[in-house]
Structures are given as structure tokens and as C-alpha cells.
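Suppose a classmate hands you a notebook page containing two proteins, each written out with its sequence and a corresponding row of C-alpha cells. How would you begin to make sense of it? This section walks through that situation. The first entry is reproduced here exactly as it would appear on such a page.
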Amino acid sequence: MSKRYFTIGMAGHIDHGKTSLTRALTNVDTDRLKEEKERQISIELGFAPLYEDEELQISVVDVPGHERFIRQMIAGVAGIDLVVLVVAADEGVMPQTREHLDILGFLGIRSGIIAITKIDRVEEEFIELVKDDILSELEGSVFENAPFMMVDSLSKKGIHELKELIIETLKEQEMRDAKGAFRLPIDQVFTVKGQGTVVRGTVYEGTVEEGQLLKVLPSGVEVRARQLQVHHQPAKSAYAGQRAAINLSGVSKDDLERGEVLVSSEHFIVTNTIDVAIRVVEDLEHLVKQRTPIKCHIGTAEVMGRIVFFDRNELKEDNGEILCQLRLDEKIVTKRGDRFIVRRPSPQETIGGGWVIDPRGNKYRFGQQTIQELEKKKAGTPIERINAALYEAKSLSVEELIKRTALDEGSILTNLNDEQFVKISNKEYALVSVVEVIEEDIKDRLEDYHQENSMRTGKNKAELLQSLQKTFSKTLLEFIIDNGINNGLFSRKEQYISLASFVPHVPKNWVKRTENMLNELKEDGLKVAYLNDYLKNAGIPDSIAVELKRFLEDQGKIVLLDDQYAWYGAHFADAVERLRKHTGDEFEVPQAKEAVELSRKYMIPFLERLDSLGYTRRVENKRVWRK
């Protein structure tokens, strides 16, 4: 997929002009709620399309700046690729701006631009003072070396230049993983009259397609993506980095809530105990004691819990990176590497943030031994790093593994001999567990297909692979199918794949009528009526007639002469044998009529069918038997 998708965020203090700047860049007012317009502050996340061409699509999220709406701010920035830090020229950096900077750093945001807004309100000399003040405040933050842009949203000064800088910056940036399993943390749930339940969020990774079966975690509710929209425009697919609204069938609005995650795979882990690496803010106001109640913000989830230390009983200041554990009151969906923020619920304060070392945390003893074990987990053994890379990408070559794991080729090849890995081609490897999950998925798809299409040989291989290739490589899928055939799970006939145990058959409720139709056709010998008349006489509806005719011919029960006539299979074979016996190597129509005792009405379709089946070859007015 050549096109790349990004979401950028507008962050900063309340009333510094984030929403106005978003409107100037996109021509979209992101204040949707009545109370937002009345109070002139953003309460909920506001989204707008910024730019699109053949290679790039960029969306904007306007993050709330008011302290009371910090949780929406965290949910907003958790899914973005670049942040525009908005600072008003007439006020400079405010206390809340510093908190936003901490949060951005903890969430791993590395790409940023500083937009000094409202420049028409101050003298030019003052802007330079504001700029110097901002530089000193940003020292040591993720924005320390970020470029500056001077803008005014009302007069549109600098707006075009800012937009161009955003575009150029993202052109040099890698997009999120669109090949992995689909994951979308839900940040809005609502209903649309006549459509039903709709969820909205930023696609963290992977791809989702219209009609795809999905699962809501942690609840485990199965749903189907009935319709997709990207910025209010209907779409067949949504990719990592895009803002998407998904109309779900199989679930009501009351069954969903913000913070849950929409996924396409069983690979994602549901947990309430996570081992983490955390850093705290420099100016922490209150002591953090062992098992202090905390509020964890991860993705769009906001979950209460407690922080558990293994090498200290309290925390008051920045002590570098601390390895500890979060024990949460509710289940969340996460994986290694996910970023989070920890806040004190009362008095409200950002404590710090970090990343998930292991989503499957256990209970450990207090002491340095546990810290040492967590250090090993954090660094990751070679085999763990290979495992994590293949878990993420599903299949990789040795060259790709070298890039993703920072291991040398020798170490990778040595560890790939472990039984949890499988070589799927001369170059690619995969996890056995991933192969087993995909194999089970294909098995389920074939079972559903056989149930709905019991008279068909199997599912067209290209059609079977088409939807899966959005997530998994063709090499991996081909390996799984071939492996399944070799192990007796799947069967292949020409281009059709089926379960090895499946035998095509007429649906039970049509078996008797089909037998009656065949008996009537058999009784009429070679001088048959129209095939559709036999079907109607037997009470077989048009809705299954085409499928039934194809099935009966595949099974040799009938042979279609043309689109009107068909013979009972055994009668056709007898007619071919009689014709062979009473003709030489070649013959003409009169000889054939005499041999089989048929009128021209049946003889011409019969002979043409012999040609199409390869029994004979027509040469002018004669037919020649093929050897």
C-alpha cells in the first residue's frame, strides 16, 4: 500500500487558539457541542481532515486544553504521529502547557512543531521575547529542537507555511503498522438513526474492511463492520493512522463504552496486571507511596488501580526510569511497548508515564531479584525480541528481523531454530502460534462457506486469500494452506479450497425433490423436455436451480447439452459409447443420427457438447474422434 495515513494533534493551554488554528488550517469547526461553543472551550476531541493527495492523508485532532478535560487530551494524543504545540504570543508558556509537555514526552511523541498564535495582538519585538521564553521552557522536552512557526488564525498569516511544514515533516516520517492485526481504541460511541451503533477512534495499527468480523475487547462481544467512514466520507477500508467511524452490527450502544478496543485478532492480550517502566514528572507535588491509588490512561481507557514498587516504598522526585507494576481494577487491552500515563485521582496530578514491558504481569516478591528479572524483561532476550517482532508483523525475513530486533544475523538464525518458530519460505519465518491461529481462522471461514454453499466444491482460493492478505503476507497464507493440505485438514481441487472432511451435497430440504427430478429425467431417456420443466415439476425454486444444475453436472448425475436440455449422466455415457461403436475415426451428422437414433433437435446439441468436452473435434462438416 503506497498511500500513508497520519493523525496530528493540536495541544496547548486553554484559549491559546488551538480550535481557531485548526479551523484556519482545515476550514472545519471542531467545536461540536453546544456547551463548547457557549463557553468557547473544547470539551471533547475534535477531528478534521487537513490534507490529502495520492501519497498522503493527514487528519487533525484538536485536543482539549482545560485541566478538567485532561483525560480527553490524553486519549487524543495517544493516537497521533505529530503534535503542534500551540502557544499564544500574548501569554507564553502556561503551567498547563508544561503538563501537556510532560504527557507528550511520556507517550513517546517525538515529532513536533511549535506554533506561536495570535501574533497580530503583540508587537514584533515582543514576539522575540516570547520565543526566547518558550525556548527556555522547552529545554529538555520533546520539543527542545522543534521548528517555530508564527501564525495568526484570523488574518491567516503563516497558515499556509505551517500547513506546508506539517506535510513535509510527515513525508519523512514512517506511518503506523498497517500490516499487523487491526486495533482501534474506542473514544466515542453513539447511534445514528436508521443505522444503529457507531464507534469512532484512531486506527492504531492494521486495516479494517467493510463487512469484516471484529471483536470488542475486553468484553469479547463479536460484531461486524457494516459500514465505514473516514471523515464523514464512506470508505471500503480504514488504515493505521486514519480517523474512522465504524457502523457495527450485532451490538447496541449500551453494550459499548469509551476505552474498549475494537480488534480483528485473538492476539491482543486482556489483562489487569502490567509490568511497566515509568518516569515521573520533575516537580511532583505529593508523595507517591507503595500501593498509592492511581488512574491509568492507556489508549482511550481510563482505569483505576494501584502502583506497586519492588525496590522502594515511596516516591517523591524524579529517580530516572523505575521498574514497577500497575495492578488495575478493570481489564484493559495492551501489548509490549504501549504507552500510558499515570495520574493521581485526588488531588488531581500527573504522576508520570512510561511503557508496558509485559502485559502479563504476575505477583512478585519485594526486592532486587524482582528488579533484576524486570530488567531482563525490559531488555528482552534475543528470542523474546524475535518473538515480539514476529508477533507484530506476523512473518518476516531474516533481513527484516535484523532491522526490527537490532540483533546480528548469527544470533537470529540460532534462535530461529527454537520450536516456537517455523520457516514458511526460503526467506520468511513466522510464529507457530500465529500459524495455528490463522489456520483456525481459515478453517472457520471454510466451515461457514460450506454451510452456506453446500453444493460447491469449495471456495475460490483467490477469494479466500483476498480479505486475509490485508493483514498477512501471501507467502504466509500460501504456506498455511499447503501445510493444511499436507496434514489432511484442507483439500484442493483445481482453484477451489475446501475442508478435507467436506463432501459437496444437496441441502437436506431439497434432497427428495432432487431425486424426483433425476428419476423423471432418467425415465425420459434421450428424448427429454426442457431441464427447467423438470425442476419446476419437482418444486425446485429458481433461487437454487442454477447452483443445483452446476452441482449435479459436477457430480456426473446430469450432462448439460446446452442451456435448455440435459441428459441423465448414465444415458449420456451410453449415447457416447453407441456412437463410438457405430462410427469410424470420423463421421458426419447423418451417420450419428442413425447410430444413436436421435432427431436433429437433440443431435446437434449432443455433438456440440462432445466437442466442448474433448471427445471429438469438428473439421468442416465432419467430426473426428480424439485419441
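The notebook's second entry, a different protein, reads as follows.
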Amino acid sequence: MILLLADLARLARSGYVMAREGVLSLVPSGAVPPPARPLLHIARLIARPDAGSRAARLSAALGRLGPSYVKLGQFLATRPDVVGTTVARDLEVLQDRMPPFGQDIAEAMVAEALDRPLSSAFAAFGPAVAAASIAEVHQAQVPDGAGTFRTVAVKVLRPDIEHRFRSDMASFRRLAAFAERNSPEARRLRLEAVVETLARSVSMEMDLRLEAAAYAELKENTKDDAEIYVPAVDWDRSGREVLTTEWIEGIKLSDRTALEAAGHDLKALARIVMQSFLRQAMRDGFFHADMHPGNLFVDAQGRLAVVDCGIMGRLGVKERRFLAEILYGFITRDWRRTAQVHFDAGYVPMHHSVEDFSLAIRAIGEPIHSRSAEQISMAKLLSLLLEVTALFDMKTRPELVLLQKTMVVVEGVARSLDPQLNMWTTSAPVVEDWIARNLGPVGRLQEAGAGLGEVGSFVADVPALLTRAGRVVTQLDEATRSGLSLSPETLEGIGRAEARRAFWGNAALWVIALALLILALK
């Protein structure tokens, strides 16, 4: 109960910060229920008179609330159809234009992390060129051994960021657990598992050694893709709190005016964004999971350059097959097949009807099929999907949460470049190629070969398994021949548990006795 009160206090503080920074003052009275309007009036009274523009208010409020809230703002910045074009534009300030934490602090952190003076690692170390919720990036120069210098990007973690994030996530965990204990809908959505999945992904983002490894793996996976480029890692100048990579000269994908002035084809770029993500997810099972416009550049060759590999997602073969089948079913309007895939994957309980679920999938798919992204209301679509999944007892799949979130972000980025983009026709070549390679004749032969290999491995291990089984039977016979005995540590643990139970039982009896005595005296 104490923990819950602390979490409620944290939520109350969030509301106060939003009110104080003037964010709640932007909400019109008619948009809130009548019982909440007095609270909105109070929020306007306590708002700072110098709150500034809408963007300044959102940036200040989310910045004060911590990295978890800033991440939420970054996500909403890519969804103008959900929060509105104006708010989405205001939230873009959170992507890479947060206030830097100071040149002196950054230089000291780099020197400490690399365990050598800054001057011996870099010939020049410039001020921050981008600052986000978790880290900031500096441009620096390093000698290349030929008497010249090359430009690099140096990413430095914000001071004390891990403590602040752990505090937020601990509160989210307790609130999710409370919700699951008291709400069947929360249990169906598996809020605790969702929070844990998101916590792990962002915790990995705060260890820059893991990000360096992610860069290397993504670069290896995409080395033959002509339309995407991943910068190389400078391993000698990287560590847990510092990451040095190749500097990318290019135009940010969010700068539409500059892209047009440079002569880039925006429709082609929208296609590249969508298809490159699908190739990463389906072909490689390892995808960039933070593809907002601040992390995407277009270089002089017209390639999509990807930076900031702090949050990455993985999909197993089963999840990739499920994704391919679902997308292919929507593309071909084969609703029966799409529904059956949900049952085969175990996502829908077997006591439901495939035909009924097929009808529900059709209700979602038909309105959006063959329409441009401009005509699709993602808010309405997600609302309908939530109603359908609740109707058929579908539980949230933690391994797919990051994929679903990234797909929404990628679609939002592609839509900003080409409002007429049809995501289904754009996805079709990648999906069909994956299906041909993995579910066609060649894929079936490879699957059969892998199965034979597993059978062979099992047969080879049978003698060792039989030997271990015989040893276990012998030990069990010796242990039970004179009666089952417990170790001293086990007996001591049982004694402590019984003592605790007896203490609380006696305490409860004394409380009851005192209560009866008080009633009798009254």
C-alpha cells in the first residue's frame, strides 16, 4: 500500500508539472468531462505566466518529468494523425534538440570512460551538435594515420540517467502489477510483461558497448543493401558511457525543404524507409527500433543513413513467419488465412472460431485496403483492433510489442515524405520475397534439412542421456532407502518460515482479542 501511495504521488507530481509548465492550459474545456473541468481551471491558475510557446511548454514539462516521459513524447512526434500536426511538430524538439548538459562535464566523462586524457584520444572535441533524452552527440576529429584527420561522432551518456530511468520504471512496474491484480483487461494485455520488455530495451540503450555491437551487426546484415548505410564503429574510442562512430554527412529526413532543394525523390525515400525496415525485421530478425526522423539521414548518394542503434529489436523464426503471413494475408485480402495464422501461432485461444475471427479481421482490413496512408485513420484502426482482440481473448505478445511500435513509427516517417503512400503495395515486394525464400520449395528443403540435423544430434546424445538417467535413478534409490532426509540448510529455512507464520498468527489473535475487549468495555 505504501508503494502504491508513492506511485500515486508520482503521478500527482506529473500532473502538477504539466499544469505548472502550462501544458494543461492548452486543453480546451469542452474536451474534458464536466467533473474534471474544475481541475482544469485550477491547472490554469497555477501555470507559469512565462510558459512560452506550445513547443516550449511540452519540452519543459517532459524534460522535468524524466527520460521515460521524453521517450513517450518522441514517439508521439511521429504520429500527427493521432496528436495533430501542430502538437507533433512541437514534440519534434524532444528528438535531438534537448538542452546539452555542458561541455566541461562531457569532456570529463569522456576522459574518465576512455581512461586517458581527452587530448590523446581526439585531436579536437567540439560542442554538442545534438542532445536527446539519454545522451548527447559531439563532433570530433581523430588522426587517421596518414597525416590527416577524419571526423567522428562521439555519443556521451547524460549524467545520472540510469538512476532517473530506474526510478520511473520501478513506478511503472508497480502500477502495472496493481492494474493486473485488479483488472481482467490489464491481465489480458499483460501490462507487466510489456513494461519489462520496454525496460530491458531502454536499459540496453544506456550501455553504449551494446549499441556499438548493434551498429556492427546491423552494418554486417545490410552490407549488400544499396539503399541503406550504417556508420562504422571506432572501437578504440568507445566504452560503456562513450560511443564513437563514423560521422555522417547528410540531410535529416525531417528537413523536407532541404531534401527537395538537394533534388532527392521524396516518394522513393518513403519507399526505402518502409522496405528497409521490413527487410531488417523479416530477413534478418534484427531491426532498428527507434527510426524517428532525427535518426535518419540522406547522404549524397541518396542512401538512407541510420544512426542511434541504442534500441534494437529481435524476432525469432516463428515471429517472422507470423509477421510475413499476416502482412501477406492483408495484402492479398485472404482473411481466412490471416485468421488461421493467429490460431497456429497460439495468439488466439483454440476455443474460438477461426471463421468468426476471420470475419473480425475482414472488418479491420477491408476499410484500409487499397487506400493511401492519407486516408487511413490509425487512431480509429488501433481502436477497432483493440476491441477485436479483447473480444477474442488475445493476450499481448511481449516479443511483438517493440515490432508493433516501430512499424507505427516507420509508417509515420514514410507518410511525412509521401502522404499518398500505400503501405500495403509498398510492403508487398519484401513480404513476397521472404515468403518465396522461406515458405516456398527452397525454404521447405532447408527446414527439412535442419530437422534432420536436430534428429541426428538427438540420436548422438541418447547414450549420454541414458547414462545420466541411470545415475539419477541410483541416487534417488539411495536417498529414499532409509527415508527421505533433508539438508540442514533446508530444515533451517523451514524453521524460519514456520516461526514467521506463527508470529503473525499470534499477532493476529492478539489484535482480535484486543478488539473484542474494547467492544466489551464500550
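A careful reader of the second entry would note: The mean pLDDT is 78.
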